[in-house]
Design goal:
alpha+beta, FAD/NAD(P)-binding domain, Alpha-Beta Plaits, five-stranded antiparallel β-sheet, about 35% helix
Length: about 400
């Protein structure tokens, strides 16, 4: 343990990498420890790796000259292109259309939303982090951490590392969150979500696009690439069992009300709508950002954007604190500003679950939202929330003012 880094980051996901770049840009020494040896995963590549970028994320990437390095957003204009090119997004599976959204009051300098690929985003951020002198160690899982008044001691991969600060960007099951004694509160899941790549013996039985049924929802983005939600109270996901072909087929048949046959299952993962948030994003010299600080269902695509917003907010404040020129209390404004944004996103995901519930109440709510999303005001409100337009306004982007770094 010879080097003491200014900041150790647990997790080289998009949030940890973006934060590392922000800190290194401000001349902090940064070590990123990442559990996975290999950065590649089919779940990070198209089409599973599709991530919608919101307006604040687009602005944050643009501020650092990273937006132009992403090729996928230039190539893929609309993930629903082959189904309904006019679709701009969805709320609880109910589509809203580009033509219904009034963008006249919104900033026009940059796109309001873009499609990206997680694998490419991480590759671009890794390249930039390495250029800026960030040390990244892969295949080294953080297993514990302690702190005192001067710094943190981190155990990872059987080695000891020293830092002045530790930031947990290690995802939903964050070890830093547990080691730091953070309280993680929220609501329990109502469904198990599935991401599948499969071959079908009779593909014509499954209509493409998003389909909400009496038992849940399924979405076929391309032939064979499927997402579905089964309202089982999250029970299957919590068993931790692998998804077998027989299980996937049984769930799909029940949700789709078809007798479709899966002939081969290539990729399968599960997730839930559990929604929890750390009650504090800071405990002394340990901080949380991204999924480590908040989890919720991926409905409507918000988690990555929320995490990048955390990192953009935290980076310059932590760097100023390390330099010693931060005003008193600056670092605590990170929690004060970002916790309410996270709480709003958690509620946004809960509202969608309520609308999707396969109950008479859920169906009644869905009918109202279907009507609302066909109106200009309704579509504009929903799109504005999903694309983070209000947050952008708070950041000064509406007036073209950019925050100095
Ligand atoms: C199906 C699906 C679709 C989604 N679509 C969208 C979307 O359109 N828009 C959007 O904004 N969000 C979306 N999300 C959510 C988004 O992907 C996540 O919120 C985002 O990846 C969180 O980034 P992160 O860096 O905080 O965490 P992660 O991406 O989970 O990265 C955490 C990293 O930490 C590493 N790690 C874990 N434990 C340790 C340890 N002990 N030591 C060291 N490293 C560790 C992991 O290997 C990983 O690399 C979606 C999610 C899913 C599942």
């Amino acid at each position: 343990m010879n080097t003491t880094y200014d900041v150790i980051i647990s997790g080289a996901g998009p949030v940890g990498l973006f934060l590392a770049c922000e800190l290194a840009l401000a001349n902090c020494t940064v070590l990123v420890l990442e559990k996975a040896e290999d950065a590649q995963s089919p779940l990070k590549q198209m089409p599973f790796g599709i991530r919608g970028l919101s307006a604040p994320t687009i602005a944050a990437l643009d501020r650092r000259g990273l937006l132009d390095q992403l090729e996928v957003p230039k190539r893929v204009k609309n993930p629903f292109g082959h189904v309904a090119s006019a679709q701009a997004g969805h709320f609880a599976g109910i589509p809203f259309l580009h033509g219904d959204i009034d963008t006249s009051q919104w900033p026009q300098r940059l796109p309001h939303s873009l499609i990206s690929e997680l694998a490419e985003l991480e590759a671009v951020l890794t390249r930039r982090a390495l250029e800026l002198g960030v040390a990244i160690q892969r295949g080294v899982a953080v297993s514990g951490a302690t702190q005192d008044a001067d710094g943190v001691a981190v155990t990872a991969g059987g080695q000891a590392f020293a830092g002045r600060w530790l930031v947990g960007c290690d995802g939903a099951r964050s070890v830093v969150r547990k080691a730091g004694g953070f309280t993680f509160e929220g609501t329990e899941p109502e469904f198990t979500g599935y991401t599948l790549k499969a071959d079908f013996a009779d593909p014509d039985k499954l209509p493409p696009g998003r389909n909400v049924t009496a038992n849940g929802m399924y979405f076929q983005s391309q032939p064979g690439y499927l997402a579905m939600q089964d309202f089982d109270g999250g029970a299957f996901h919590q068993t931790g069992e692998a998804v077998t072909l027989a299980h996937a087929q049984a769930v799909l048949r029940r949700i789709s009300h078809t007798d479709v046959t899966i002939s081969a299952l290539h990729v399968a993962s599960t997730w839930t709508d559990r929604a929890r948030q750390a009650t504090s994003y800071r405990n002394g010299r340990m901080l949380l950002a991204g999924d480590a600080a908040h989890i919720h269902s991926p409905l409507g695509g918000q988690g990555l954007n929320l995490g990048i917003g955390d990192a953009a907010n935290l980076g310059w404040k932590l760097a100023a604190t390390i330099r010693g020129d931060a005003p008193a209390g600056l670092l605590d404004t990170y929690h004060a500003e970002r916790h309410p944004v996270g709480a709003r996103v958690l509620d946004w995901s809960r509202a969608q679950v309520a609308v999707m519930r396969p109950t008479p109440e859920g169906r009644a709510l869905r009918a109202i939202f279907e009507d609302l999303l066909k109106t200009r005001d309704g579509a504009s409100y929903i799109a504005g929330r999903v694309w983070g337009i209000a947050e952008l306004a708070r950041d000064g982007e509406l007036s073209g003012v950019r925050r100095a770094s």
